[in-house]
Amino acid sequence: MKRTLIPVLATLTLLFAFTSCRQDGPAPIRNIKAGPNLLKAQAGQSSTNYTYFTGQNQKALGNVYTKDVLVSFVGGLTADQEQRILTQYVFVKKTTEQVATDAALLHRVALVDGLNSNQVEQALQELAKDPNISYASPYFRDGNSLLGVSNQVIVTLENGETEVLQQLAKEYNAEVLKSIGEGTYVVKVDNASKGNALAFANYLHGQKGIAQAEPDFIITPD
């Protein structure tokens, strides 16, 4: 399932200046909090190619997009506090847009130029460790659009047996939020889950009692 991203009227001020480098080379990350780990993700390392299932058909997503990621924050933070959290990471440039799902308000976060896909995956791991960030996930390029992995999976059951889905969600530290039709449910994941919505959808594929599971992608023009 896919949804369209809604731009925020005003972007936040860029607080740090960054030096860019070529896309195919490692970026000059020098931040005490996250930089040293990112430097380990060298451009020469093989990158992960991701896929997902739409029905029974497997579709390629390729490598993670290197310009943006999605994050959501824990409740109770002001916009200024959220921005201060992000500016601790030198690989973050600014927030640009946001979209509300059934479970959270997701922010599109622009990254500095020059990161490779391995570095973006490491950056997502660093963001997920932050106690103030409840979810962090990648974008993928799809033609002239970007697919952001939201914090939701849309699941259709074979026989309407919700107990099967509840048990699978429990094992994955996910939460069944609500029904959106006969036998179809929205399931939420976050940083406490075993993986993001893409990973959970792939985990559900082929499980007994599951007819279909897809990430609830957020679509935005590239």
From TrEMBL:
Q: Which residues cross the membrane?
A: none
Record carries keyword Signal? yes
Sorted keywords for this record are: Signal
Question: Which Pfam families does the UniProt entry name for this protein?
Answer: Fervidolysin_NPro-like (PF22148)
Residues of the signal sequence?
A: 1-22
Q: Where is the Fervidolysin-like N-terminal prodomain domain?
A: 149-215
Q: What is this protein called?
A: Fervidolysin-like N-terminal prodomain domain-containing protein
